[in-house]
Amino acid sequence: MSKIQSEYPLILPYSVYPMDTSGSRLYYLILFDSGAQLKVSDKILKILTYLDGTHSYSEICKSLRTEHGISICEEELRFLIETRLSTAGAFYSGAKDEPRSSNYHSAIMFRTTFIQGIHFKALTVPFQFLFSVHYALAMILIALLSVLYHLTNYRAADYMDPLSTMTGMSFAVILALLSIVFHEFGHITAAFRFGIVPRDIGVGLYLLMPSLFVDLREAWRLPRKQRVIIDLAGVYFQLILFILFEIMYWISNENVFLLANQFILVSVCVNLNPILRYDGFWAVTDALGIVNFHSKAFEVIKSHWFYFILRKRSYRDRLDRPFRDMQVNRRKVLIKFSFVYWITVITATTYIIHTMISALFSGPFLDWESKKGLIVVLGIALVNAVFRYVVKRQSQRRSEKRASKGSDESHTVDQNI
After folding, report:
1. Strand partners, 115
2. Strands (E), 158-313
């Protein structure tokens, strides 16, 4: 920020959308003209109204205290703006026409964008009728009957036969990749159906495994029901493709379609699991309407670990922080989910790393040059994870240090962004 903006902070133009959540506290989605976005509480929203370039830090603190009853010290307001809002891309980077780039946090590492979602708008139009109630119910019923028929009438030998030839294996890989692409196309189509334009579409690593992604951050401004539909649209489209492949098998008698459908069933089961951050997780999150579900689950585990296991009495006040303004039934869900989630994440990550290391050092199918390449990739992923953790910890420590100098109310404001 320039000197004038540092003393009289000027935020980018933005639009405000109320979020559909289950708690009593109000949350809003802030979409900036630069493309950045934030999920904020009503207190943070009130702070944003004073960041118009005409109010100094001291004037903002005074206005918040007298007009809204929000007590926040000038030092903490600076910290909030400089380390939270600024890094999120909410301010100009120097010149007024140059927005600051945002630091978008994602579970997917090494995100590489291939194309922008807007380019798919025309392509999705012929498929949007699939989300009307009658068509959707009909397709889901046909898909369930097809899956039942598939599971009860075919043996493993039927769909493993194509793997015996290079041609069959290649065709099976192509069909599997097609189902993955069609899965993401389902998310994109549902987003356009409800008026949301997907952002980046690309590939990255999730739990050290290659993964396609579609950036649908703006879906947070939709009602929860529509968000759940978008979450499950990928699985829905894969099941439609399952029906098509089943028909192709009946027509051609080519077992490769059975193998492709077996892959789809595995993919559907993986994506519907509500523990890891796949489609099922986001569907549960949106259905419950809990904002920042993942970070709150981490806070639950962290506070319980430090207080009950390590006997850190300073964490006593943090035990209830994730549950503020949350209904009792949702508190129970969050507590149970938190422990199951982190046990699953640790188990899955350990298994994947163990499998990759075992394959790396004991597999005869790789020469030393290939193994060195894999070691480099794993090393980069490890360094990236450690770096992100260190940066996050430093930011948290600075936040806690500055918050301790302010009032309890101002600390609450800082934590709700």
Report:
1. 201
2. 200-206, 209-214
